[in-house]
Design a protein that fits this description.
CATH superfamily of the largest domain: FAD/NAD(P)-binding domain
Number of helices: 17
Strand content: 15-25%
Distance between the termini: 25 Å
CATH class of the largest domain: Alpha Beta
Largest sheet: 7 strands, mixed
Number of domains: 3
Shape: globular
Number of strands: 18
């Protein structure tokens, strides 16, 4: 049995990023993935709807473009190509035959907002300028282990720099806004209901409700998209993880598919990993790229009792949302035109009002599917013809605030079709031309998401992204720097800093920790 320098348990994008950096450094590294295809939730399949390339997890790539990962790993040499989404978001305004377009270019975005409110157009310009300045400092902390001293010093340096251009009370007020609910900030900054609803639905995508304290940066973070842009991997979201796997293999790494891990056990100075099929692997170091609860509850042999208990008390929550992937005859039209429009590149924000969003969250708190769900619709075949047969298209619909655990006596296997229909009805309200144009669909209920991806209770962020579970609190203070008290066992993935999304920062940071110890 060969002895590996490191084995990564889980082939999602963070696990693969970590593995690539280790293999690049010459370390004998393997990845064990329980599914028959690599990529975790950054994966595209061709066997779900014949003739179509269907994502089974994420679809929009934003954060990873702010990191050095793509450049340092030279993923374009391994087939990765990105298509710019411009506009990257679009909010159709009912009854106007128009909508708000969020472009990478700030001037173009403000011009679009000005159709509905010149006041809010100017406010948006000020908002982006202020929050971009703040978030550039916060972003620095995302690309390092979240040591409290480093984080506070990084933000403090930025604050001192900003004081040259802003009064001290202004910097203090920015800190206040970080602690405020993003729903309150929308009211403080903007007056037009369409602008507030569009930005509110965008901000909700990380999970917190508009009323949650210390969620201000869920709104403020949208300013960074004007810096990075939002992009679509050509051929599907999984093109990223396919390129990562090719890079990893080119550097001598090994990938073992259909290798679900049964146990991880310390053996002297090494670790023994056993799969469900009975295969065993011996390694100097283990990197867990799976859910933190799965690691401590199901896989790890003899973890410290108190630590296992503390991990079990971290909050997963009660679900997040559901996704339906459609094959369609024609694209949804929001402005009474035909053919491909600029907004078909965008995340299409179909939320009638902030009240609708708040009502959905109240349904969620009661353990009920939202009576009146909001939708993010995505039609990427309009900018990437490889996704669908000629003349056909794809439509992905994401609905949020769908509780994993229902309290009305229903279960998701019974109601998945009904709830999928409700998401589609929301699209029909804004784009009635689409009615009768559905060819096929693939539903991912909260229960389906858990079964496929190991996302416990269907939280796509693994753990709730609340302030008490972020930075050096994620997943716990003693685990936040990607190490565990068990020598040779490390963590990466959405359960760790900086959290979920197609980012790769966690895998990047974990690799730096290991490489320092191997040096």
């Amino acid at each position: 049995m060969p002895i590996y320098d490191a084995i990564i348990v889980g082939g999602g994008h963070n696990g693969l990023v970590c593995a690539c950096y280790l293999a690049k450094a010459g370390l004998k590294t393997a990845v064990l993935e329980r599914r028959p295809i690599i990529g975790g939730a950054v994966c595209t399949q061709t066997d779900l709807i014949p003739g179509y390339r269907i994502d089974v997890g994420s679809s929009v790539h934003i954060m990873i473009h702010l990191t050095p990962i793509l450049r340092e790993l030279e993923l374009e040499k391994h087939g990765l190509e990105y298509i710019e989404m411009d506009p990257w978001a679009y909010y159709p305004v009912a009854g106007t035959n128009s909508g708000i377009r969020f472009h990478r270019d700030l001037d173009a975005t403000c011009q679009s907002i000005a159709q509905f409110s010149t006041h809010d157009a100017e406010q948006y310009r000020k908002f982006v300028t202020l929050w971009k300045e703040l978030n550039e400092g916060i972003f620095e902390t995302f690309l390092m282990p979240p040591n409290p001293g480093k984080i506070f010093w990084t933000i403090f340096k930025r604050t001192l720099r900003n004081l040259k251009t802003r009064k001290i009370w202004s910097s203090m007020d920015t800190s206040r806004q970080l602690m405020a609910p993003y729903g309150q900030l929308l009211d403080e900054w903007f007056e037009n209901q369409h602008v507030k609803t569009a930005l509110g639905w965008l901000s909700a995508q990380s999970g917190p409700a508009p009323t949650e304290m210390a969620s201000g940066d869920m709104l403020g973070w949208n300013s960074m998209i004007h810096l990075s842009g939002a992009k679509r991997a050509k051929g599907g979201s999984g093109a990223l993880t396919q390129a990562l796997s090719k890079r990893f293999l080119a550097d001598g790494g090994e990938i073992h598919l259909d290798s679900e891990v049964k146990s991880i056990e310390a053996s002297g100075e090494k670790w023994i990993i056993t799969t469900q099929s009975g295969e065993t692997f011996e390694t100097k170091k283990v990197v867990s790229a799976c859910h933190i609860h799965t690691l401590f509850k199901d896989l790890l042999k003899n973890p410290p009792h108190e630590l296992k208990k503390r991990v079990s008390q971290t909050r997963i929550g009660n679900g997040f949302g559901m996704m339906v992937r459609h094959a369609i005859e024609e694209l949804p039209q929001y402005e009474n035109k035909s053919g491909i429009q600029d907004y078909h590149s965008a995340m299409q924000l179909l939320c009638p009002s902030m009240e609708t969003l708040q009502d959905s969250y109240l349904d969620f708190q009661r353990g009920l599917p939202p009576v009146n769900p909001s939708v993010v619709a995505m039609t990427f075949s309009a900018i990437d013809p490889t996704l669908a047969p000629t003349g056909k298209h794809t439509l992905f619909t994401w609905g949020q605030y769908h509780p994993y655990e229902l309290r009305n006596g229903e279960n998701w296997d019974q109601i998945r079709e009904r709830e999928a229909d409700k998401l589609l009805e929301r699209v029909y309200e804004s784009a009635p031309n689409l009615r009768g144009k559905i060819i096929d669909r693939y539903i991912q209920s909260p229960l389906d998401l858990e079964r496929m991806h190991g996302m416990l209770r269907a939280n796509v962020m693994h753990l709730e992204m609340s302030l008490d579970q972020m930075f050096f609190f994620r997943p716990l203070p003693e685990l936040s720097e990607y190490k565990t008290p068990m020598k040779g066992l490390y963590l990466t993935g959405a359960s760790t800093h900086p959290g979920g999304g197609v980012f790769g920062a966690s895998g990047y940071n974990t690799a730096k920790v290991l490489l320092k110890e191997f040096s």
